[in-house]
Amino acid sequence: MNYTDTLSRYMTHFVAQLAYSGIEDVVISPGSRSTPLAMTFSRYDRVKHWVHVDERSAAFFALGLAKAKQKTVALVCTSGTAAANYYPAIVEAYYSRVPLVVLTADRPHELRDVGAPQSIDQIGMYGHYVKWFHDLALPEDGLLSYVRKQAARAVGESESNHPGPVHVNLPLREPLVPDFNINDLWNEGVKPIPKSIYGLPQISEDQAAEFVELLASDKNGLIVCGPQTDTDIAVHLTKLAARSGVPILADPLAQLRAGEHDKRNIIENYDAILKSDKRKEALKPDYIIRFGAMPVSKPYLQWIQKHDSTIDHYVVDTYASYREPSGIATQFVWSDPGEFCQRIFDRLQADHIENAWLQHWQEMNMIAKSHMLAEQSKDLNEGHAVVHLTNSMLDHSVLFVGNSMPIRDVDSFFMATPKHIKVMANRGANGIDGVVSTAIGVAATGQPTTLLLGDLSFFHDMNGLLLAKQHQLPITIVIINNDGGGIFSYLPQANQPAYFEELFGTPTGVDFKKAVDMYGGTHRRVHNWEAYKRSLEDSYKEKGLSVVEVITNREDHVAFHKDKWQGIAETLDFLDEV
């Protein structure tokens, strides 16, 4: 058998097994050394292929696809620095538990470390940010079972335990063009490897009894739900909270604030409530049961650290891990969250309990909500931009949120709604890079998607707009443009005017309309509320890329938030005195 025949069979069996193991999408960045992989994926109709010339953007696009579909997505690139451009998205995927199979083409062994062009050391190049690495054998006769096993393992490793990225490096010799006219090319003589089955951990009967006793007691408890992607958890948590009379502090990324489930026990304004030092001191829970990652809210973090010695703290996580950055004493419960809630719920006797602790949180939440939603000024501000956005968004859609100030404004102003809105973000490493590409990856699944982000995040990832242009993907992007890094205005650096603007404010002065025009999108720049609401309404009627640019002022943003927080604190203090 000549080398081209061997290469062709090797690649087709590898790709066919990836598909058999569950890969439905691959994102390809063009290059020469990756030709066998790219052409084989393109030829195989069981896997949809997407092409993006920018590897960094391509990787974040794949991340968004995998997040939204909750399925493993493959990446393909050529050798050299192309693979290095995947690194930021791989880090994010690792920390946010998103399964990716990263396939990097490489020079054969004889061309490594000898100064060959477009050759770098790709062995283990992503370090511990991938769950598994394998340097695939060069294509040879008799290795079809081997290459299928590695493909199956790659997908299995990405999905097992903590889902995350894996890396398969593929050294390839020339010639690189496969021959697809060979008979029985895809399945000849090799049985596909079945997909692995992974069961989720469960607590024992005795362990369940301990939590039943805790939740049935007269102790003041809290359920906290941080960032997580399982939309089914809302029903389980709210049923358990209602039956036990426990408030739920719900992060905006917890998938609890939106939907038709029971929201009586949900406290969405806890961040604003806990801004007050007096509230931090007065509110003393006896126990906290947390689901998901640590909430976005910094006041919440400071609050539980303040009461470390008096709180019994539990973190329920599907997989064995130690996601607890507060440093407080914590008992980890490694169990499927839905099954955990259901087992406790089934053993509790009463239902829809009301108590003074719950009512106090509900009253504080209503007060905070009324202050946050109070009539806004005529000038545009980031907070009420979120309120109007929530009101305008389509039912059964996705809100993807950028980091820095946008996620914090969503935390403060995204209130409970019966709409089915899934809120997503890149909160693994919390970076501003790749946000546009990730959101467009979400939109590529066919879900109506809105991206809310700042001007620096948009500037940082404008290349991500390419796939929206090429595939006419429907996405509305709301840019909060305060000409710089608004979050730094809240930090001590803001008191250093000699350094602040250049090093932290970082204004760009870029005309984003020209960039949007370049990618074939519709651009609307708004300076008042009526124009903003009308632009949102129009954007959801359009196909393809639509950008709404909201012009705000960084200095006003700080004063606006502080005024809200002070009003809440004063009203709650007054109630205490009465």
UniProtKB/TrEMBL annotation:
Domain Thiamine pyrophosphate enzyme N-terminal TPP-binding, residue spans: 12-125
Pfam families: TPP_enzyme_C (PF02775), TPP_enzyme_M_2 (PF16582), TPP_enzyme_N (PF02776)
GO MF terms, alphabetically ordered: 2-succinyl-5-enolpyruvyl-6-hydroxy-3-cyclohexene-1-carboxylic-acid synthase activity
Coiled-coil boundaries: none
Keyword presence, Magnesium: yes
Function statement: Catalyzes the thiamine diphosphate-dependent decarboxylation of 2-oxoglutarate and the subsequent addition of the resulting succinic semialdehyde-thiamine pyrophosphate anion to isochorismate to yield 2-succinyl-5-enolpyruvyl-6-hydroxy-3-cyclohexene-1-carboxylate (SEPHCHC).
Subunit description: Homodimer.
Designated name of the protein: 2-succinyl-5-enolpyruvyl-6-hydroxy-3-cyclohexene-1-carboxylate synthase
Native organism: Halobacillus naozhouensis
Taxonomic lineage of the native organism: Bacteria, Bacillati, Bacillota, Bacilli, Bacillales
